[in-house]
Design goal:
With 216 residues, the protein is mainly α. It has helices spanning 4-26, 33-40, 44-51, 54-82, 89-102, 105-119, 121-129, 132-145, 154-172, 178-196, 202-206. The protein has one domain (4-198): Tetracycline Repressor, domain 2.
Length: 216
C-alpha cells in the first residue's frame, strides 16, 4: 500500500499532467478549474490543498515546463559530447535543444505566451535563470576555457545570448515555420561565437582590452 506521502505525490502529478494539457490546449484564461477537477476526479478543495489557487497551479506547470526544457538541453549537450564533437558543437546543440523544447506544442503556449503574461516577467525570468540560464552560463564558461571565445565577462555574454534565445523562442511561437527560425538562429549564433573568438578584427582594434595574438 502506498504511504500518504506517496498518495499526495501521485495526486499532485496527476493534477499537473491534466493541467499541463489543458493550459497548452486552451490557454490560462480558457481553463476552468471546475472542468479540470472533474477530469481529474477530485474536488476543488483538493486542488487548492496542493496548489493554493489557479495561479499557483499554473506557476507549478510553468516551473515543470522550464525544468523539462533544461533537461532537454542537458541531454543534447551530453549526446554531442559523447559523440566527441569539438566545441562549440555541444554548446550549439544545447541552444538548439532549448529552442526546440520551448517551441514544442505541449509547452509553447504555457512557457512563451501565457507564462510571462500571467506570472509577470520578473517571476517568469527568475524561473528561467534557475534552470536553462544556469546551463547556458556553464556552457559559455566552457567555451572560454576551450579558447573558442574571448571575453572578460562570462555573465555579460550569457545574458546577451540568453536574451537572444528567449526572443527567438517567443517570436518562433507565432512563426509559420518554427523549425526554419531555429535553424537560422543557430547558424547566426555560430557566426557570433566565431566573431567572439577573433581578437584581431576591427572590434579588437577599437577595444584594446581584448588580448592580441603574439607574433610568431
Amino acid at each position: 500500500m502506498p504511504t500518504k506521502a506517496e498518495q499526495r505525490e501521485r495526486t499532485r502529478e496527476q493534477i499537473l499532467r491534466v493541467a499541463t494539457r489543458n493550459f497548452a490546449d486552451s490557454g490560462y484564461a480558457g481553463v476552468a478549474l471546475e472542468d479540470l477537477v472533474a477530469e481529474v476526479g477530485l474536488t476543488r478543495g483538493a486542488l487548492y490543498h496542493h496548489f493554493g489557487s489557479k495561479h499557483g497551479l499554473f506557476a507549478a506547470v510553468v516551473e515543470r515546463a522550464q525544468t523539462s526544457v533544461a533537461e532537454a538541453v542537458e541531454r543534447d549537450v551530453a549526446r554531442s559530447e559523447k559523440r566527441g564533437e569539438p566545441a562549440p558543437a555541444p554548446f550549439l546543440a544545447g541552444c538548439r535543444a532549448f529552442l526546440e523544447a520551448s517551441l514544442a506544442p505541449e509547452v509553447r503556449r504555457i512557457l512563451l505566451v501565457d507564462g510571462p503574461a500571467v506570472l509577470g516577467w520578473g517571476d517568469w525570468r527568475e524561473g528561467d535563470l534557475d534552470s536553462s540560464a544556469l546551463l547556458l552560463e556553464d556552457g559559455v564558461a566552457e567555451l572560454v576555457g576551450a579558447g573558442v571565445i574571448r571575453t572578460h565577462s562570462v555573465p555579460t555574454v550569457t545574458t546577451m545570448i540568453s536574451g537572444a534565445l528567449n526572443e527567438v523562442a517567443i517570436a518562433g511561437a507565432g512563426a509559420d515555420d518554427p523549425q526554419r527560425a531555429i535553424d537560422d538562429a543557430i547558424t547566426t549564433l555560430a557566426r557570433m561565437l566565431d566573431g567572439l573568438g577573433r581578437p584581431d578584427g576591427p572590434a579588437a582594434e577599437r577595444h584594446p582590452e581584448f588580448p592580441q595574438p603574439h607574433a610568431t
